[in-house]
Amino acid sequence: MKNTVKFIGMVMMVLLASCSSQQSLQEYYVDNSENPNFISIDVPASILKMDEANLTEAESKAIASLRKFNLLAFKKTDSNVAEYKSEKIKVKQILKNDDFVELMKINSQYGKGVIKYLGDEDAIDEVIIYGDSKDKGFALIRVLGKDMNPAHIVQLMQAIQKSDYKGEGLGEIGDFLKG
């Protein structure tokens, strides 16, 4: 009987430890914000300077639902290839969480990626854009807002194309994302 109780206790401890060991995306951002291999920046949605753009009503509504962006990019070099591979695995594992709903996959000449979201289909609170390139590294962008919907993502892209925004205020991460 004692052995059975000990066994059940050990199983419970292992289960609790494994459940809580799953790192959240926010924890991943915080844990790596000071890592020299990462570029990290938090920017308000107002940085996009959409006030001057000639936006449709739908595009304006999409912009109004945004609050801020969290950008985290791993800049791959010849000396950090092993860490790049390890960090890429960690991020993909986090994004496999059932809470994230896949919106679309991206496959371009620049690399591969995915767009996922958290929240209800008609009231999204967070959109996650992940992309990686074998040569440059990977980038994670969290778009935080209130009551966004999947159509807002398309509207947002159209609005950004209409604006005069050229990446000002993003510094090194803007250069990373452009080229």
Verbal overview:
- The chain has 179 residues and is of the alpha+beta class.
- It has one domain.
- Helix content is 40%, strand content 32%.
- The protein has helices at 2-20, 25-32, 57-64, 81-95, 150-162, 171-178; strands at 38-44, 66-75, 101-108, 111-120, 123-133, 137-148.
- The chain has a six-stranded antiparallel sheet, sandwiched between helices.
- A hairpin with a 3-residue loop joins strand 5 and strand 6.
Search tags:
disordered N terminus; alpha+beta; 40% helix
| Helix count, DSSP H or I runs of 4 or more residues | 6
Task: Give the assembly state of these chains.
Answer: single chain
Terminus-to-terminus distance:
65 Å
From the alpha-carbon coordinates, what is the Rg to the nearest angstrom? 19 Å
* Total discrete domains: 1
Tell me the major beta sheet. Answer: 6 strands, antiparallel
Helix-residue proportion: 25-40%
Order of helices and strands: HHEHEHEEEEHH
| Percentage of β-strand residues | 25-35%
Q: Helix/strand-derived class?
A: alpha+beta
With strands numbered from the N-terminus, the spatial order across the biggest sheet is 1-2-6-5-4-3
